[in-house]
């Protein structure tokens, strides 16, 4: 074995008992291996911090509330960074070993490369289980927790914005003030957006005060000595106090919180049974009504508004059921991407034998980026719409498994 011009006999050891055949080439240091953990931690923290800052900026959260938001954002960040970070670590380790001909040395001794591969596969399997749990926790606990932090801080957020910018607005209302003295909002103008059949309302008052009620998810606004103008209807003055309650949750957010993507895995099976029974009952009801209308000869009802409304309701239940059936497959398949990334990355890094660690990583990750993620998106979208079976979400994992098996076979043989 050669080491930068020096020949080292197999089995030769230094005075300290160190096997010289295991030493890296002259001039080589362990700096890349020392840099790797720092790089992974840096990338993980970068994604995590960006996620926290983006959520805080979107909700106008002050610094204190950003700190409270961290535990709820962390699972959401980890479930995206763990698969790629594990692939980076895997390709770095096995590319280094292949570059130093350690894999060749192992095979020359009659030892199967699986000896050095199976520990990584076991770790990847365990990390995949953790990622599945993170997928579940991030949507069922993290999202609701983040919303709760924003809800509890809405009063502080509003006063902070009103002091600095003299205005605060959401999708439900907008409030403008001339100045803020303690808890008093002087020269206040409140604009309430129309909701359903309720028209827009404009209120001006000499002063106002905000009080949040997190228990009921409402923000109470007490206005004194002002005027109320209802769009297109009436206008009146009030010399005393006019109290308004504004829901803190947008109706669209309320609807989103009932979607399968927000539910824990533990409750999804019961929801599937419930919606399957509901869909069966709707179909039976529509069949009975259609038969009755045909017997009576009332063919016009089959194309009327009532029948269209029932058909639309059935389609809505069917769509929700398709999402419920897709969600467990989505969380498990994306969680186990850790294992399949490593299944492909380890043998591919060995075959590349590229000394540049980041190059090995990108050569492994680029095919995954081009093939795996488009298949995953296609499978999730088609399954949610009911055009393909929910198990289609696993198509990308199956392809990675076949590709990794082919690479592993070549590593074992040659």
Descriptive account of the structure:
Residues 1-37 have low confidence and may be disordered. Strand 3 and strand 4 form a beta hairpin. Strands 3, 4, 5, 6, 7, 8 and 9 form a seven-stranded antiparallel sheet that branches. Among the domains are: 30-152 and 329-413, no CATH class; 171-249, no CATH class. It is built from eleven helices and nine strands. It is of the alpha+beta class and 414 residues long. It starts with a strand and ends with a helix.
- The geometry reads as flat
Elements, N to C (H/E): EEHHHHHEEEEEEEHHHHHH
Rounded mean pLDDT score: 78
Alpha carbon gap, first and last residue: 20 Å
- Main beta sheet: strand number and arrangement? 7 strands, antiparallel
Q: List segments where confidence is low: pLDDT < 50 over at least 5 consecutive residues.
A: 1-37
Helix content: 55-70%
- What's the Cα radius of gyration? 31 Å
Helix count, DSSP H or I runs of 4 or more residues: 11
What is the strand tally? Answer: 9
Alpha-beta classification: alpha+beta
- Report strand %: 5-15%
What is the structure about, briefly put?
This protein is 61% helix and 15% strand.
Task: Name its key features.
414 residues; alpha+beta; 7-stranded antiparallel sheet; two-stranded antiparallel ribbon; 9 strands; flat; disordered N terminus
Protein topology:
Layout: E1 2-3, E2 6-7, H1 31-59, H2 63-99, H3 102-108, H4 114-152, H5 154-165, E3 167-169, E4 173-176, E5 179-181, E6 184-192, E7 201-213, E8 218-230, E9 235-247, H6 251-256, H7 268-296, H8 305-335, H9 337-352, H10 357-384, H11 395-413
Antiparallel strand pairs: 1-2, 3-4, 4-6, 5-6, 6-7, 7-8, 8-9
């Amino acid at each position: 074995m050669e080491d930068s011009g020096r020949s080292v006999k197999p089995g030769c050891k230094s005075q300290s008992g160190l096997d010289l055949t295991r030493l890296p080439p002259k001039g080589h240091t362990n700096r890349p291996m020392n840099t790797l953990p720092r790089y992974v931690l840096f990338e993980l923290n970068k994604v995590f911090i960006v996620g926290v800052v983006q959520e805080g900026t979107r909700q106008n959260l002050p610094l204190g509330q950003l700190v409270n938001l961290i535990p709820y954002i962390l699972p959401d960040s980890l479930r995206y960074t763990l698969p790629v970070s594990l692939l980076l670590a895997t390709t770095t380790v096995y590319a280094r070993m292949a570059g130093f001909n350690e894999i060749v040395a192992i095979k020359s001794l009659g030892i199967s490369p699986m000896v050095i591969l199976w520990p990584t596969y076991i770790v990847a399997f365990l990390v995949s289980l953790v990622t599945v749990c993170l997928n579940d926790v991030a949507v069922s606990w993290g999202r609701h927790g983040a919303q709760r932090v924003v809800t509890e801080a809405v009063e502080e957020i509003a006063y902070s914005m009103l002091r600095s910018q003299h205005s605060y607005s959401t999708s439900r209302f907008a409030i403008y003030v001339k100045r803020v003295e303690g808890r008093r909002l002087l020269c206040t103008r409140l604009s309430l957006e129309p909701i359903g059949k309720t028209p827009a309302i404009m209120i001006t008052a000499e002063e106002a005060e905000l009080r949040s009620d997190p228990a009921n998810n409402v923000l109470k606004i007490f206005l004194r000595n002002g005027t109320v103008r209802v769009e297109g209807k009436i206008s009146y003055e009030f010399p005393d106090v006019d109290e308004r309650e504004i829901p803190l949750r947008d109706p669209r957010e309320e609807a989103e919180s009932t979607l399968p993507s927000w539910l824990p895995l533990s409750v999804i099976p019961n929801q599937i049974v419930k919606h399957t029974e509901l869909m069966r009952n709707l179909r039976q009801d529509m069949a009975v009504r259609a038969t009755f209308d045909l017997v009576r000869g009332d063919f016009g009802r089959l194309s009327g508004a009532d029948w269209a409304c029932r058909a639309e309701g059935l389609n809505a239940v069917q769509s929700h059921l398709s999402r419920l059936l897709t969600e467990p497959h989505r969380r498990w398949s994306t969680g186990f991407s850790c294992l399949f990334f490593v299944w492909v990355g380890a043998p591919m890094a060995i075959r590349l034998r590229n000394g540049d660690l980041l190059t090995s990583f990108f050569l492994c990750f680029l095919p995954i980026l081009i093939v795996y993620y488009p298949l995953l998106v296609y499978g999730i979208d088609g399954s949610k719409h009911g055009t393909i079976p929910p198990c289609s979400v696993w198509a990308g994992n199956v392809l990675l498994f076949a590709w990794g098996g082919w690479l592993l076979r070549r590593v074992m043989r040659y």
